[in-house]
Design brief:
By secondary structure, this protein is mostly helical. It is built from 18 helices and six strands. Helix 4 crosses helix 7. It is globular and about 80 Å long. The N and C termini lie far apart (65 Å). The structure holds acetyl coenzyme *A. The site of acetyl coenzyme *A has 19 residues, from helix 17.
Length: 428
C-alpha cells in the first residue's frame, strides 16, 4: 500500500502522497499544498527540498555511494574514458564502440572556436580570473550559433549544440590561461584524445615540441570522471533553473559556471591550496588553524572539509586520495603541502568538533594537490572542475528540457515594511 503523509493545520487534516525513487528514497509530494491549504513551505538552502525527479545520478550521503546512471563511480573512474562517461550521462546508457566512435568523431570535429572570439580574449586584462572569462565565453557561443537559441528546435540541432560545447570548452579554458600568460594560443590537435588535447593547448608552445605525458593525461581523465555529475548541487540546480525559462544551453551552462566559481562550491579547490600555502607560510602549525576553524568568532573554515550531502565520507575523496599518492609518486613530486594536508586531515578527523558535525574531507581537498602536481596553475583549478562537470550539467539540462518541467520559481515569506505612503523627497 502506498504511503500517505498527513498534515494537521488549524484543525483540518490534509493528505499528501509519498513518492519513492528506484533506490527507495522517499519524498512527500507537496505540489498541491498551497492550493489546498494556502500555506507554503520554507526551506532555506533547499536542505530538505527535492526540486525534480531525475534518472541521472544517485548518491547516498550517509553510505558514501555515488552512481552515474546506475554505475558505481569507483568502476567508472577505474575503467572508463571521460567521453564514454559523458555519453553515459547525456544519453543514459553506456555506448557501443560504434556509438562512442561517432560521438568522439563529432566532438573532435568541433574543437576549434570561431577566430573572432580571439578578439574577446585579447580584450581581457591579463589578471582576469579564468572563471570569469570562461563564463562569458561560453555565453558568447550563443551569439555565434543563433540556431541554438531555441533549445527544442530538433533532436539533431540539440545534439549539435551539445557536441559543440563539449568540444569547445577545453579550447576556451586553455585559451583563458594562455591569455592570462600573454602566450600565443595553441590550436587543438585533433589526433589527440580529449584530455591530451587540453594539456597540449595548455602547455605546448609554438617554439618547442610538447609531448603529453600519459601519466598526466590519465590522471586528468580520472579527475574529470569524478567531477562529471553530482545531482542537484548549487551549479547544477542553477543550470536547471536557468534552462527552465527555455534559455539556451550556452547561457544555462554559463550560469552554472558562475555558480561553480564560489568558494563554498567548486572554488573550494583553489581555496584549499591557498589555505595550505598560508598554513605552510605561517610555520605549519596545523593545530592552530584547526582551532581557528572551530572558533565561532573567526570566519575561517577548513576549506575542502564538509559537504551538504555527504555526512560519512565523500566516495570521490576516497578515490582521489589514493590517486593523489600514486600520481605524486609516478611524477616524482614531493610536495610539502601534501604533508600539511595529511596532518590537517588526521587532526580534524580526530577532533570532536569535526566528528560531531560529520565534517570529512571532500573531493576538493585532494584534487588541488593533484592539479598542482600536474602543473595546472591555482587559478585554473575551478576551470578544471567546470570541464569535468560539463557532461553532468548538459545531461541535467537535457533531462529538464525533455521532461517539460515548469519554470523554476520559488515563493517567499515577505518580512518587509507594510502599507507605507509615499513621502515627497523634500519632506523626508
Ligand atoms: N570548517 C569548519 N566548520 C565547518 C566547516 C568547515 N569547513 N563546514 C561546516 N562547518 C560547521 C559550520 O560552522 C556549522 O557549525 P554549527 O552547527 O556549529 O553552526 C556546521 O559545521 C554545519 O555547517 P553548514 O555550513 O550549516 O553546512 P552546509 O551543509 O550548509 O555547508 C559546505 C556545506 C558549504 C560545503 C560547508 O561544509 C563548507 O563551507 N565547507 C568548506 C568549503 C568547501 O570545501 N566547499 C566544497 C564543497 S564540495 C563541492 O562543492 C564540490
Amino acid at each position: 500500500m502506498s504511503e500517505i503523509a498527513k498534515l494537521e493545520l488549524n484543525g483540518q487534516t490534509y493528505e499528501f502522497p509519498v513518492i519513492e525513487g528506484t533506490e527507495n528514497e522517499k519524498a512527500i509530494d507537496i505540489s498541491a499544498l498551497r492550493a489546498q491549504t494556502g500555506y507554503i513551505t520554507i526551506d532555506q538552502g533547499f536542505k530538505n527540498t527535492g526540486s525534480c525527479t531525475s534518472a541521472i545520478t544517485f548518491l547516498d550521503g550517509e553510505e558514501g555511494i555515488l552512481h552515474y546512471r546506475g554505475y558505481p563511480i569507483e568502476q567508472l573512474a577505474e575503467k572508463a574514458s571521460f567521453l564514454e562517461v559523458a555519453y553515459l550521462l547525456i544519453y543514459g546508457k553506456l555506448p557501443t564502440q560504434a556509438e562512442l566512435d561517432s560521438f568522439i568523431n563529432s566532438i573532435t570535429k568541433h574543437t576549434l572556436v570561431h577566430e573572432d572570439m580571439k578578439q574577446f580574449f585579447e580584450a581581457y586584462p591579463a589578471k582576469a580570473h579564468p572563471m570569469g572569462v570562461l563564463a562569458s565565453m561560453v555565453c558568447s557561443l550563443s551569439t555565434f550559433y543563433p540556431e541554438s537559441l531555441d533549445p527544442n528546435r530538433s533532436p539533431e540541432a540539440k545534439d549539435l549544440t551539445i557536441h559543440r560545447l563539449l568540444a569547445k570548452l577545453p579550447t576556451l579554458a586553455a585559451w583563458s590561461y594562455k591569455n592570462a600568460m600573454r602566450h600565443p594560443f595553441m590550436y587543438p590537435k585533433n589526433d589527440l584524445d580529449y584530455c591530451s588535447n587540453f594539456l597540449h593547448m595548455m602547455f605546448a608552445m609554438p617554439t618547442e615540441d610538447y609531448k603529453v605525458d600519459p601519466v598526466i593525461s590519465s590522471a586528468l581523465n580520472k579527475l574529470l570522471i569524478l567531477h562529471a555529475d553530482h545531482e542537484q548541487n548549487c551549479s547544477t540546480s542553477t543550470v536547471r533553473v536557468v534552462g527552465s525559462s527555455q534559455s539556451n544551453l550556452y547561457s544555462s551552462i554559463s550560469a552554472g559556471i558562475s555558480a561553480l566559481w564560489g568558494p563554498l562550491h567548486g572554488g573550494a579547490n583553489q581555496e584549499v591550496i591557498e589555505m595550505l600555502e598560508k598554513i605552510a607560510k605561517d610555520g605549519g602549525d596545523v593545530d592552530k588553524w584547526v582551532l581557528k576553524a572551530k572558533d565561532k568568532n573567526d570566519s575561517f573554515r577548513l576549506m575542502g572539509f564538509g559537504h551538504r550531502v555527504y555526512k560519512n565520507f565523500d566516495p570521490r575523496a576516497k578515490i582521489i586520495k589514493v590517486a593523489c599518492d600514486e600520481i605524486l609518486e609516478k611524477l616524482g613530486v614531493n610536495d610539502p603541502l601534501l604533508a600539511i594536508a595529511k596532518k590537517l586531515e588526521t587532526v580534524a578527523l580526530e577532533d570532536e568538533y569535526f566528528k560531531s558535525r560529520n565534517l570529512y574531507p571532500n573531493v576538493d581537498f585532494y584534487s588541488g594537490i593533484i592539479y598542482k602536481a600536474l602543473n595546472i596553475p591555482t587559478e585554473m583549478f575551478t576551470v578544471m572542475f567546470a570541464i569535468g562537470r560539463l557532461p553532468g550539467w548538459i545531461a541535467q539540462w537535457k533531462e529538464m528540457t525533455e521532461g517539460n518541467e515548469p519554470i523554476g520559481r520559488p515563493r517567499q515569506i515577505y518580512t518587509g515594511a507594510t502599507n507605507l505612503n509615499y513621502v515627497e523627497i523634500s519632506k523626508r
